[in-house]
Write a structure and sequence with these properties.
This protein is α+β, with helices and mostly antiparallel strands and 144 residues long. The protein is built from 4 helices and 5 strands. Strands 1-2-3-4-5 form a 5-stranded mixed β-sheet, with helices on both faces.
């Protein structure tokens, strides 16, 4: 049985689990320190959702960012990752559906996310859940 819950307290267990998951998302992902995790947990704009099994083992996560802007509340999903041992069992779907419900409750008019084309399974999941590819350019400015 999978349970989805919001991370509301920074704990060593959560930190270790997140630091185990992040490299599975990207080889460039750097681990978090406890101070950074606490900063995220205390943020008014960032919600971290964890997927746990019946033994309270954290097997997946995602971040939901909700922003209040002049044109309305907007939400963005980042850092969706499910442990390799738990993939294909519906955890990603449960995390995404939970995030959508929370974004709606928080008044978001839409939820955006991006995914590298190489993440074929993730892209199929997003489309199966009703996410649509937008015709837009995504730009990034990197600080040195």
């Amino acid at each position: 049985m999978i349970t989805i819950s919001e991370l509301t307290k920074s704990t060593k267990e959560a930190l270790n689990a997140i630091n185990h998951l992040l490299p599975q998302l990207s080889v460039n992902a750097k681990g978090l320190c406890m101070d950074r995790l606490a900063e995220l947990v205390e943020s008014d704009n960032t919600l971290i959702f964890l997927g746990t099994d019946e033994h309270d083992c954290i097997l997946g996560m995602l971040s939901l960012i909700v922003m209040k802007i002049p044109t309305g509340n907007k939400a963005w999903i980042e850092d969706v990752v499910v442990d390799q041992s738990a993939r294909g069992k519906g955890l990603g779907k449960s995390l995404l559906n939970h995030a959508l419900e929370q974004a709606k409750k928080l008044g978001a008019k839409s939820v955006d996310l991006t995914s590298r084309p190489s993440r074929e399974s993730a892209n199929k999941l997003y489309q199966a859940l009703g996410y649509e590819i937008r015709e837009t350019n995504v730009y990034r400015y990197k600080f040195s």
